[in-house]
Design a protein that fits this description.
Keywords: Repeat. The protein has about 1000 residues and is mainly α. It is built from 52 helices and six strands. A six-stranded mixed beta sheet has the order 2-1-3-4-5-6, covered by helices on one side.
């Protein structure tokens, strides 16, 4: 007997017992599709045995001709009946002829999956004295049972044979592999090499290698490879092809390539196998290179359908339409384009690459469409969100119901476009079709229906579908939990999560990620931490959960916690970088956001739209023009500048950096201007105080270009009218919202009320507050209170302050507004009372802070700051400026100093305002003609505003000051705001 020691492999197979319950107890599996095998027992394959089945005369006898004809036509039962006729006639006296007929008929039963006739033949052989122990017939019976999907019967027959040869062992191993009993096949292989004298041959190894491939046991596969090398069979083309396929499935492309290049003989299967391995492992360049080598090689092989349908999906994945077109041309030249598999792959390639017209034309030209053809085109347009086109193709598909029927894949492809309330009717139609045709029993369809109803905000329907799922899996629960999460119902999401765990199902990363997303939307840090703890305790961790946790801590205002989590992540994907950069940007930490963006680029990772938008947003927050321009340049080089979100953010960045001309230049340069880009430029002009240009753009957008304004468009134009005091125009635009069927939101009312109150129409503003359909928020009351101070409406201001302080009792800014109201009316006792309350509550007013960017560096100034290195120079510069602007009519306006001080002390305080310090520093450090851009965290005061106007005239400089409300562009003694702010 051969042993492992004789084969010198040094590997024990005892651990393979784990693949099945008992070594020789096999499962029964009925095959549906015709399986493939590496082993053939046809007369051509085993000439040494099957030669005995030929008649002595050397030619076919009439009897065998009749059996052959009946087998070829599929009349196997009739052939069996013919075989059982009285054997006293002419040729029937030849036992070899009968044996050949039996073998032929048994083989036909396997090919036709006719196990019943096969069993009758088995019974004939078993009862025959001459044939019961015939190795050839028994081998064919073993193969027949395996081919018909009865591996248990195949094994039982094998065990009953008294004399076994290598062909029988190959037949049973091949049969087990054919029926996907891969662990059992390997155990049978172990038994053969350890308990018999037979050595595996070039038919044994391909079956065993395939079993190793499916079981994903690379160590075992390498041992079998070693055995093939030692036995000199590794150079066999069939063994080599099996090894290439195995290594390709493991993504061991180097090993697969080595086997391929060492093969002395290669066929088309060899080339297809190695190309497939490269494709599966993501080596696109190498895949196409192998195709080129095959075409230019000495073997003179041409790609077949298998080659084409392997490479076309790669072209689709890589969006390499150039190579796809080349393959398309090749299929036409080789006459493959009419093949349905090739046609479907070409349609898929063109659609995924964005060449929709070409894909549709190919689809329409295909006259032999199958369900895969329809699913391909429907699935691609569904992925692109083309709802109308998806439904159109679905209707056309249903009109051809005699040729092709909608299946589970079709329903799964259509359901994603049913993603909002407008698609509820279509969703119900799909659900009804699934019920009528039994498709709802498919787990994926049922789960997709739950998810679709949830997206359409029909949670009750989602719950009903879920309840009728026979076997609720983790994926089913995930669909329901995800639905609750999408609809901001974390309570029900958590309840479902608990029910799932109680039903002894282990939540996966999707379950946890959905819950974390729900908590992020509701900013529920408490629940989010509980879920985080659950994930840690149960070892549930992956990139999806890490990203969800980053978003949770970011949305809940915990960027430090998010950064700690980010730093601990082993594999930082681009999405995690994006999430962290966005976290810093959204939480008012622009320096940290920009620093992380630099690290991302330095790490050699190419940022995409989200990271670029966040970096531009950080530049906007800090008004760092130089850095903003650098990010803009990066976006252009990375071909991101035409992206709708990126372009809008660039427009906003330049506007917030005081470069309205740059904003307009970017806007004018856009090839396609959508509503978002119009909104961005209108808002930019509004914040800059150029309401006239904002109005022109709005009129052009809505009247000339037939662009339909949305809620953000009206928000921008109302803000522009508010900043410019265009009350009547603002009221007109507010009333126009109804014409566009836009319901005003709280933000629109806030703009309208701010516009009226700035214009002194406080009673009208209060009337709107009382009549609007929602409760006013703190912003509205704060705006009204500020205007009450401006116009001296003490009584109304006190009433408003009472409401504001009840709403936000711990916000220092509200007490400051009330204090300013009293100070403006000279009620200093009340001022002291308010400040005493602030002291008791430990509330502090934000100190006035301004900053200026020079040479890419930010310089900050705090009101009254005398600790700066350049403090003496700044004071001297101010004294020189004060002399010049005094000649032009400047007088300190102490009315904006809301403290009970002597006049000279008030003047001294005015001299230390942060914007004055920043302007003086900018004049000291820049050359003549340079535009000064100063940014302030609070509103600019009247005195600083007057001083800046006159300074711009005295020094012939443009000075742009952005406060926390708007821009002021000072030039030649005037301001862009028209002294209205």
């Amino acid at each position: 007997m051969a042993s492992l020691e004789q084969l010198n492999t040094g590997f024990a197979f005892t651990h393979l017992r784990g693949y099945t319950t008992r070594p020789h107890e096999f499962h029964t599996r009925r095959s549906i599709a015709k399986p493939r095998t590496f082993l053939s027992l046809s007369s051509q394959t085993h000439q040494d045995h099957s030669s005995t089945l030929t008649s002595h005369s050397g030619h076919k006898l009439p009897f065998l001709e009749e059996i052959t004809n009946l087998c070829d036509s599929g009349n196997l039962h009739e052939a069996l009946a013919f075989l059982q006729v009285d054997p006293q006639k002419d040729a029937l006296s030849n036992s070899l002829t009968i044996k050949e007929a039996l073998g032929m008929l048994i083989q036909a039963c396997g090919q036709r999956y006719d196990v019943e006739t096969g069993r009758e033949l088995h019974e004939l052989v078993r009862k025959s004295i001459h044939y019961c122990n015939d190795s050839v017939l028994n081998t064919r019976l073993i193969s027949m049972y395996a081919m018909c999907g009865w591996p248990k019967d195949s094994l039982r027959l094998f065990r009953s044979c008294q004399r076994k040869n290598l062909f029988m062992w190959n037949a049973v191993i091949s049969g087990l592999t054919r029926n996907e009993l891969y662990g059992d096949a390997i155990l049978m292989f172990e038994e053969m090499i350890s308990s018999t004298e037979f050595l595996p041959d070039n038919f044994t190894f391909p079956c065993v290698i395939k079993a190793c491939s499916v079981l994903v046991d690379v160590s075992l596969g390498k041992v079998v490879h070693g055995m093939a090398i030692k036995m000199g069979l590794v150079f066999d083309v069939f063994v080599g092809n099996a090894l290439i396929t195995m290594y390709g499935k493991y993504h061991f492309v180097e090993e697969a390539s080595k086997v391929f290049h060492l093969m002395p003989e290669r066929n088309l299967v060899s080339w297809n196998s190695v190309i497939w391995g490269f494709v599966e492992s993501g080596f696109s360049r190498e895949s196409f290179k192998m195709l080129t080598e095959m075409l230019e090689g000495e073997d003179e092989l041409l790609p077949d359908v298998a080659t084409t349908v392997t490479l076309l999906p790669l072209c689709a994945r890589e969006l390499n339409v150039g190579m796809g077109r080349g393959l398309h041309g090749l299929t036409v030249k080789l006459g493959q384009s009419a093949d349905l598999r090739v046609s479907n792959a070409l349609v898929d390639m063109y659609l995924k690459s964005g060449y929709l017209l070409e894909g549709q034309m190919l689809f329409d030209k295909n006259v032999n469409k199958n369900v895969v053809s329809w699913n391909t085109i429907i699935g691609n347009f569904s992925a692109k969100g083309e709802t109308c086109i998806v439904y159109d193709y679905l209707r056309k598909m249903q009109s051809q119901w005699k040729e092709v029927k909608v299946d589970e894949v079709t329903v799964l492809n259509v359901l994603p476009v049913c993603s909002d309330k407008s698609q509820v009717l279509s969703l119900k139609e799909l659900h009804g079709y699934s019920l009528r045709h039994g498709l709802h029993h498919d787990e994926l369809v049922a789960n997709a229906l739950v998810a679709a109803y949830a997206k359409c905000e029909m949670l009750r329907s989602a719950e009903l579908v879920f309840q009728y799922i026979e076997t609720q899996t983790v994926n089913s629960w995930n669909a329901l939990i995800g639905g609750y999460a999408q609809n901001n119902d974390p309570g029900k999401a958590l309840d479902s999560f608990i029910q799932m765990t109680n039903s002894r199902l282990q939540p996966d990363s999707f379950s946890v990620g959905s819950l974390l997303s729900a908590c992020s939307r509701l900013k529920s840090l408490k629940h989010g931490k509980q879920i985080h703890g659950f994930a840690v305790r149960n070892g549930i961790a992956d990139t999806f959960i890490d990203i969800s946790l980053l978003n949770l801590y970011s949305q809940c205002g915990k960027p430090l916690s998010a950064r700690l989590l980010f730093d601990r992540m082993k594999d930082k994907t681009l999405v995690s970088w994006n999430a962290m950069i966005t976290s810093y940007s959204q939480n008012g930490l622009p320096n940290e956001a920009l620093d992380l963006f630099r690290k991302l680029v330095s790490a050699g990772i190419r940022p995409f739209e989200i990271a670029t938008v966040s970096a531009l947003g950080a530049c906007s927050q800090q008004s760092t023009l130089l850095l903003g321009r650098e990010v803009h340049c990066y976006a252009i080089k990375a071909l991101l500048a035409e992206d709708a979100y990126v372009s809008c953010t660039i427009i906003d960045m330049y506007a917030k950096c005081g470069c309205i001309k740059e904003s307009r230049r970017v806007f004018d340069g856009l090839r396609f201007k959508d509503v978002a880009s119009w909104n961005a430029v209108i808002a930019a002009y509004g914040a800059y105080g150029n309401a006239e240009e904002a109005v022109k753009l709005f009129e052009k957008m809505s009247n000339e270009l037939d662009q339909i304004p949305d809620d953000l468009t009206f928000l921008g134009i109302l803000m522009a009218c508010s900043h410019a005091g265009l009350v009547e125009k603002g009221l007109k635009y507010f009333n126009q919202m109804d014409m566009y069927q836009i319901n005003p939101e709280l933000e629109h009312y806030a703009c309208l009320i701010d516009m009226l109150s700035r214009a002194g129409r406080l009673e009208d503003a209060m009337r709107i507050v009382n009549d609007m359909p929602m409760e006013p928020d703190a912003r509205i009351w704060g705006s009204l209170l500020s205007s009450c101070r401006t116009f001296g409406a003490l009584k109304m201001g006190e009433e408003i302050a009472d409401k504001l302080l009840k709403m936000e009792p711990d916000k220092a800014e509200n007490y400051v507004l009330l204090s300013n109201l009293y100070a403006g009316s000279g009620k200093w006792d009340d001022v002291r009372k308010v400040r005493q309350v602030m002291k008791e509550k430990n509330l502090h007013k934000d100190a006035g802070c301004s900053w200026i960017e020079l040479g890419g560096k930010l310089y900050s100034f705090i009101v009254g700051d005398n600790l700066l290195p350049e403090a003496q120079e700044i004071r001297r510069m101010w004294r020189r400026l004060e002399e010049k602007i005094s000649i032009l009519g400047y007088k300190p306006n102490t009315s904006c100093v809301l403290h009970e001080l002597e006049e000279q002390e008030k003047i001294k305080l005015l001299q230390g305002h942060s914007e004055k310090l920043a302007i003086c520093f900018g004049l000291l450090k820049t050359n003549s003609g340079t535009v000064l851009r100063v940014y302030k965290n609070l509103r600019i005061c009247i005195d600083c505003h007057n001083a800046a106007k006159l300074i711009s005239k005295a020094v012939q400089r443009d000075i742009i000051v952005r406060d926390n409300k708007r821009f002021h562009h000072f030039r030649d003694g005037c301001c862009s705001c028209g002294d209205y702010w």
